[in-house]
């Protein structure tokens, strides 16, 4: 069957080639040789534009024998076409010497006036601002094919599925049919009614959330392939772009053709292209945008006019990526596409995951068409997720697709689909995606067991080298439950520590798990952990190395996790802890000294991300876009007299995290955390402020690795509190692009803490409170080489020390990009 289709395709191609003439070419400035972007090419009643590099590709019908080429400020040319001609280089002569300088200035001013008016009228022209409700259906076809040139993808772990396809040189074919609903309050939401990814046994849901074809160019930040570009109609457009009038179109709805080009490419990611702006309403009728570098990224948007609302609505967008001929890297998928190996900023772990050179020859095409557009439909999707994948979407037959495709599949499309089915299997793409997803969360899968990478090796002052292994069973054992645990050994204290547990998966979609655990290990005194804190994978735990104040813990716990809403995850845990001291410490209460004691505790924890965006699939809820601020909270109640509990107490914790990302690639991070404890709380279960400086004389002797929210100049065991408030502020500047291996980021840091303790006499060892307020400032130069960098911090204010050396800390930094 495949051979028959291929033969038919070849016969059709032969017929087309003899009835049409394909002309490729380039349009250049006669004097400078510079390419002329978006020059107009007229042929036989049709019209086309050259690309950013001046290149063009058109098809002439049999009777067409000439081209008319024009560009603003240049003398037009008419070119005769001879039979057999396939390539044409056209040089236009500047006519600028014939123009009055006043006219040139007027044109520039006119373009600026038109763009200013278009920005001013966005509330009347942008459907999301003008309309309270609307809906439409959408058909998207997404294809990745092997081409004739070599590309590779460097990026992080935000969309490992499609990146694995690209980096493996595999063919990919997917179709999606969706219903979109918009409301003023809830924004634009998508219900996926049909989804087909050729060759995959399990659907690649991440491609559903991939922003291949954004809604319109009205957005302030125009997102394409998970990368934000400055919008040409943003309020800062004149700061980021220069504009020029190329032409004015004729017809029922004439339009200004405005060329836009980035001004600050090294600072702000920008597109280069043309906007067709209605001469009456200044709305976008059509848009073309491109990026040229190691690849050619091309975007073509079409809009449909609705006379009843005097509104142009997005109708169709085609996005393509082709091999380029420049060294400049192009930013997509949250990283960059360029020639070379697979890692974003050459991270060490990526070299392990995807070592060596690869040779995928990739052409990527995505076509998205909106139809059955209803500007007043008040229906909504009854879910808080941005994207909802219908359970029936995965089982659609060919009849469904024939009824919902906006255009039939070409023979070439069908051949690509069949090839994708074979190549995905041959290259083990599903297995590679599963492996990389596991690695990105900190696990290394081997058969039925996922080894936890953070358990193999650690070091601290008490245990010495901490060797061991740990992990959990995966779906090869069971989809209904998993077993987990670890076993470690300290070479200095010569003691085995271990954990064993199980998680019974009651409901996969709501992440409802029943957990049972028994642990025998050591815990840092004064540490505080949120049960629903995000499990961020880290090979290095900076503070762990210098910790020297631990206690022994034997704990039996039972708990349940549940997602009450798309953005709200909770966990309830009951635990019975037997505590014994490693250091000489006693808790003094009611004329009794406690070194060993029992805690009976109930803990409720939550993680709430009201501004994040989620995708709801038949079996899970996945976060597709981080949103800030996010909130993590916890309350614990210790009860005496029940299960041998010795103390009554209540503990509260709340952490608020916020991040501001800017189009110039800088970002500012805020972390505000408060802790409060009342009742009979021993020092082991009070709070410290995450100190990260060993108490040694000499700056170099205190040299250590910086943490994310630790105080780098605060000595271990210097402060303890039963109530405290901490604020961390970091501002990261845009990376210095010195070399693919050397792209350091300058970060300025300020940290502050204040706290107190009600009954210090209850504790047998001396320490300070944070009553006067603790302050430190720092600077880091991160990711100098392979994720490693340098930093320094200085403590000042009421708790500053007499000697300068004691206030100063010098640090390694390590940030791993997956």
Automatic annotation (TrEMBL):
This is CarboxypepD_reg-like domain-containing protein. The lineage of its organism: Bacteria, Pseudomonadati, Bacteroidota, Flavobacteriia, Flavobacteriales. It comes from Salegentibacter echinorum. The keyword Manganese does not apply. The keyword Signal applies. Keywords: Signal. Transmembrane segments: none annotated. Residues 1-19 form the signal peptide. Pfam families: CarbopepD_reg_2 (PF13715), DUF5686 (PF18939).
